[in-house]
Amino acid sequence: MDSANTLLGRAMAQKSHFVATIAKHQSTVGARAITQTNAPEPSSSKSNLSVNFRTRPLSTAEIKQGFFPVLFCTETQTTLYYPSFRMLTDSSVDVQEFEFDGNFAGEAGDAHVYETAVQQKFFDVLNQNGILTIMAYGQTGSGKTYTMMNIAEKLVNDFPFENDISAFISIIEIQGDVIRDLSVAGEGRKVPADAKVLLDGAGLPVLQNVAEYEAKSKEQVLEFFHHGFAMRTTRSTLKNAASSRSHFICTIRICGGKLGFDAVVKLVDLAGSETGSDKKDHDAVRLKEAISINKSLMSLKECIRKSTLLSETSEDASNKSSHIPFRSSKLTMVLKDALDPTLPRFTSTVVFALAAPTVADIPHTFNTYRYALALKSLNRADDKDASILEHKAAAKSAEPASQEKLTPMAWSRAKLERWIEMQFENQVQLTDLLGPRGDPSHFGRHAADFVLPAWKFLYSMSADEWIANAKTHAKFTDADRVGNVREKYKKLFLKERATVKADGLSTSVTGKVTLLSLEENVVTEKKLSRAELAMQKAKAKGAALRATSLSSK
Ligand SMILES: Nc1ncnc2c1ncn2[C@@H]1O[C@H](COP(=O)(O)OP(=O)(O)OP(=O)(O)O)[C@@H](O)[C@H]1O
Known about the structure:
- By secondary structure, the protein is α+β, with helices and mostly antiparallel strands.
- It is 42% helix and 18% strand.
- The chain folds into two domains: 31-384, Kinesin; 401-552, no CATH class.
- It has 19 helices and 18 strands.
- β9 (196-199) and β10 form a beta hairpin.
- The protein starts with a helix and ends with a helix.
- The relative contact order is 0.13.
- Mean pLDDT is 74; it is low at 31-46, 379-405 and 498-528.
- It comes from Chytriomyces confervae.
């Protein structure tokens, strides 16, 4: 076995290859050029939904720990690099490219983000007495609160505070089924959890026990806003020392003036989404909290998707609104007036999907990407069936190898992780199933020498072990579902194992096949057709056969 020093040297070399490969690829695509643009034209999309992706700069702590960025944004696209350490081939770097309505790098100025993604929507809403909803979604510590705070500050500067115009503000947080009025909270004062949301006869949300305050200036609006943020329920999590554990909603009505303004702005800072591994050290209360957060985020996604699809159809929408599950969570009940397309008011929704930039956050970034993709795909006029689209995209991202008929044993660890996450809807992760014996993070940098590859470990585990691990490490109790996923995994494995060998290629969600060789530190990027893929496989097989026959001579 190699000495520790040799292994350390090899690990360092891998990392520097990875970093160098990213830098080289970035320079070829000319990424990171952030140019200031003027506010865009009013959106032509009928659905008035725009979905933006933003990352943040590395924190000092992340730099100290040696993390490096793998997520980059330009004006038009976001690029994610992730390692693919295949069992049967050389290691390589996969590239995933996202295109959202807005793509914002960590260094993109807040004024630029506001002017590009929000400002025009605000003026549209103001002129039509509509409702503008701005919401931030992402893992804990990804920059949701930072983005919402800065957007609020820029937005308030555009409020028309003259000619008898007032802003009426209310601030609530939603934690599970509990709603609190944060405006009445103060130092050492307990926030009463007695606020309620009801839907009136017209289907509009009515908040009870929530105060509304009048603000006459920008400064007063911001004072309320900052007070609300300060009073919000936070907890220390693995990712963020003061992680927001509630959904924060600040509603501002802008009324009065000669033009008779009656517009509404809702600023929604969603609680941080968590994946299975974040929940590892949770006690029962925290676990319940995390499940409730994820459930409400899912129901929000469902309501936005169904509302947007409905607003795109010309048929009588009112009959169908009952199929939109607004009552499935307090969050969606409170936002119903902003999302329900059957209500007569003009509405516009701006979603910010936030992701942390480091290599350690890749599973979360994929999670956020999938959430945002499910919303973004609705804006594509030529692809109305969003559920099919999302299903296809999820299937592609989770089982890209199956397209090239690769077995799970040729999947990279990241792909295996994504497949497991999708099977369990983010409630169980690969590391949960592996347990400490199979999880390389328990073995430090020498993992490769001690731990079986993840695919092999899963394959060799009995049904009882799968179930026990899911229960112990993810506290996931649905034994039948665990059993079914295990069966599916084994079937995938067995079906292809006999016939196919790995070919060193992988497909990104966007369908581009990208191979960046780490070993030679040479960047080769290529879009491959099916025929070319087949050729690559044939060549690999031929080379393997030649090698075997040479060695037997
Ligand atoms: N674009 C950015 N530029 C500079 N710093 C940023 C940016 N985005 C986030 N940060 C910093 O990153 C840290 C985490 O951000 P923030 O608290 O906004 O995360 P969050 O997603 O709201 O987390 P949680 O869900 O746990 O509350 C903060 O210290 C914040 O100042």
